[in-house]
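Moderator note: this is an archived Q&A kept for reference. The question asked for a predicted structure of one protein chain; the sequence and the answer are reproduced below.
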Amino acid sequence: MLMWPLLKKSAAGIVDASPAEAVILMNRAHAGVLDVREATEFAQGHIQGAINIPLSQLEARLPELTRYKDKALLVHCQGGIRSGKACSLLTKQQFTKLHNLRGGLNAWIQARLPVVKD
C-alpha cells in the first residue's frame, strides 16, 4: 500500500508526515533527518542518524545542510512547533523537499519507534 498520497502538503510546500510516513520516507527516499532541538534535548535521545542543529543556530549553520537542498529532509523537534519554524526558514532558502514530523519526537516515541543516545 502506498502512503505517499496520504502526505499532506501545506501552502508553503512543506509536507506534514506522521511517524509511519517518516519511516517510509527515510527508508525509501533516504531522507536526511534534521533535529532542531537544543543539544541537551538531543543528548537525551534522538532518531538514529539525525543531524542536530538547534533552531537558534539554524540560519548560521545552513551550509551544513546544502546537500539536502534538493533531497528529502525530515525536520523535527520535540512537539512540532520549532520544526515548523525551521521548515519555514528552510523554504525561504530554497530547500524543496521538506517534511515536518507531525507531533515531533513525542509522536515518534508514542508510535514506539526507536531513539538512540550518543
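Archived answer notes: The beta strands are 8-9, 15-17, 32-35, 51-52, 73-76, 98-101.
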